[in-house]
Amino acid sequence: MTQAFTVEGGQMYAEDVPLTQIARQFGTPTYVYSKAALHGAYRSFADACAGRDVLICYALKANSNLAVIDQFAQLGAGFDIVSGGELARVIAAGGDPKKVLFSGVGKKVDEIRYALAQEVLCFNLESAQELDRVNEVALSMGKRARVSFRVNPEVDAQTHPYISTGLKENKFGVEFGSALALYRKAATLPGVEVTGMDCHIGSQLVDAAPLLEAMDKLLQLVDQLAAEGIHLHHLDLGGGVGIRYTDETPIDPAFYLGEVFKRLGARKLTIMFEFGRALVGNAGVLLAEVQYLKHTAQADGRNFCVIDAAMNDLIRPALYQSYHRIEPVMPRAGAGQVYDVVGPVCESGDFLGKARRLNVAQGDLLAVMSAGAYGMVQSSNYNTRTRAAEVLVDGLNVHQVRRRETVEELFALESIVP
Ligand code: LLP
User: Fold this and answer.
1) 20, 261 in Cβ contact below 8 A?
2) CA–CA separation, 136 vs 143, rounded Å?
3) Does the annotation count 305 as an active-site position?
4) Do 144 and 168 meet the contact criterion of CB atoms below 8 Å apart?
5) Candidate list 57, 122, 305, 346, residue with the active-site label
6) What tens digit of pLDDT does each residue of 111-149 get?
């Protein structure tokens, strides 16, 4: 993984640009992405698939800024989407809709029609009713939809329950035991063409074993279907590969893909992935400024470091108790104190880190690390806070890829009753 954010000569850089310069130019809070890190992450998977029949799709729910989509389009990636809106983003960024997988449990008729008009590569179906709907919509347009079923392999991804998706109790996918019957039915419908099988068992996995176990289970079905004359064209193993937030040892792409190809054997299937976090997570930081330090006098009391980024900018700590490293942009000598790093939002759940040892003063800049995935995309305007700016660094150049919102824009769609 490309080291995009490094401390040199007493300050942190994004590639070759000091973060202090970015804060001066664009203000805070600002999401800062590294082009080299995006490319490096993609290449670590692409290199491990060299010479193989593979389509790496980028799950753009992780970070759907047009500039990020554009980078992956240039690298030759496909895309995994979960809404008509995401398809519009792929197209707006110059991505190829014919390399798009359409996932998600709740596709509406309009979205299906739009995706068919754009000739997406495949609909990842998640229920029997969705099969019927896609078939009907396709027939009404005189088209045939390429489809795959998202099979729930009933494998425990051993990750946070909110981001675990491959168990019976989850809303996702079709039951393993009903998959064959659904494929047999789909094969008879004139509005669909059965082309693949997919799964996605969860996110931020740090062990490849559950992913490979899921693959083994899907291959059983693939082989059974082939024996019945239903030949699939691709197997989509979803996303889920985790990143290092603190001290995790992430799955090694070369190891994982090596194991995948070993299992695939001589089968003639295109392998597809839907990676989100692994492609963008460590390519971004959230840059913020210290507003106030509140020290308590009590021995058992807490100290608070109030910064200008909050749960509305990065909700992961509040929502999943997830850990993001928080680093000073210009580290000071000395041990400092232990702080809860919090934002200005009026909720006790508004924290970005708890019990962090920091040596900071009012006005210092902090970088909330590993914020490239599920950061800006999950932001909101809670407390009428304008959302952060986003910049993409490329060597010595900084490109603003989303400007900060204005307060007027936040209520521009509202009106007072006459
Ligand atoms: N494919 C499907 C069908 C998915 O549902 C997801 C993520 C992905 C691919 C990409 O997974 P990844 O490679 O990023 O693990 N907001 C949460 C993560 C939610 C993931 C939802 N699905 C977080 O901040 O941790």
Assistant:
1) no
2) 10
3) no
4) no
5) 346
6) 999 999 999 999 999 999 999 999 999 999 999 999 999
